[in-house]
Design goal:
heterodimer, A: 115 residues, mainly beta, six-stranded mixed sheet, five-stranded antiparallel sheet, globular, B: 116 residues, 11 strands
Amino acid sequence: GESVGLHLPTLSVQEGDNSIINCAYSNSASDYFIWYKQESGKGPQFIIDIRSNMDKRQGQRVTVLLNKTVKHLSLQIAATQPGDSAVYFCAENNGRPGNTGKLIFGQGTTLQVKP
Amino acid sequence: ETGVTQSPTHLIKTRGQQVTLRCSSQSGHNTVSWYQQALGQGPQFIFQYYREEENGRGNFPPRFSGLQFPNYSSELNVNALELDDSALYLCASRSGATPASYNEQFFGPGTRLTVL
């Protein structure tokens, strides 16, 4: 079946360090991947996305890496700040008719930033 | 903050009742998706609406139904509520000439439903 999994439920980092959050996916047909940040009491907030024809994409302080060979996705956050503390979800979409817009989410990794 | 709004914020119902949740999409967005997020889990896709028609559905029973209106706002209806329906219900909107376009989905803050 379809599943997106995260390697660790909780990641604790020191303020200023870099954070790496990992995600494994099982559907080799997936061609679009997104990272979301969810703070307590709020809906998921888009961070960055990547399509399967790319292996790296950079945003402001964030980088997403995609390894299609091993079906692995990672989110790197540079110079982690207290405001980065949240639950991070990876999500995939395989774009098949009827599935477009259907995002499959992982269970989430909680990022804790220590001051 | 996204331009997606949801109402009500919180809701308490009893088993067997029916509930209607509402979503106003971001201006210019014609596609709305609904997700169920159980505590400690990732959101699960319920269904998507595009131009007032359901376009794509997840593994949810028929008692989960929806509507999309000409102004692209949407409703999620759940009949015969069960205890396991207790969750955060999220609405997400996006723009796109077709539902197949990969445009960023903007999520609302959600409605917290508790079924007793």
